Task: structure prediction
Amino acid sequence: MRYKEFLVGQLFRLAPGHFHAKSELDPGKVPLISCGWENNGLIGYYDIPDENTHSHALTVAFNGAPLTTHFHPYKFGAKDDVAVLLPVNPMRESVLIYVAALLNAKTWRYSYGRKCYREKLKNVTLTLPVEGRGHAIDPELPDALLKEAHGRVKSAATESVEALLSRSGSSGPNP
Result:
């Protein structure tokens, strides 16, 4: 497996969020994303015009815990305290999740006093697997890692449920 360093700005177009305050918006059905960690940054549902929405993209926080990154496989709008990373070339969801994990591993480098602004974000390096001797990102490794992680979580959950059932008696409640 070969790896290559890429700059965020080589892989993504960085779009600004469109809204400064949620009070600018009427309630609706489109998720609004901010810089928070909880709930994937979701702060509510609003009536957001289509031209101000994105889908299958990453958001990166500029405030709070800078560089906190979330993947959004759904239509969403963003506040102006996040960057929306739109892939320059199509990327599998597994690659976007992998990139989000790489960026989240770098959050320790930034703080409220040492923010990661747009220009800094463009120059953050990501080490990604590449195919053969080329420079194209290899989507197979992120897929394999996600499948392995899913298998481990599923196995651990199954073991946990089985252990609980064996302690309480697997026959279930008596009629």
Strands lie at 2-7, 12-16, 27-33, 42-46, 57-61, 69-72, 77-78, 82-87, 125-130. The chain has one domain: 2-168. The chain has a mean pLDDT of 86. The first strand starts at residue 2 and ends at 7.
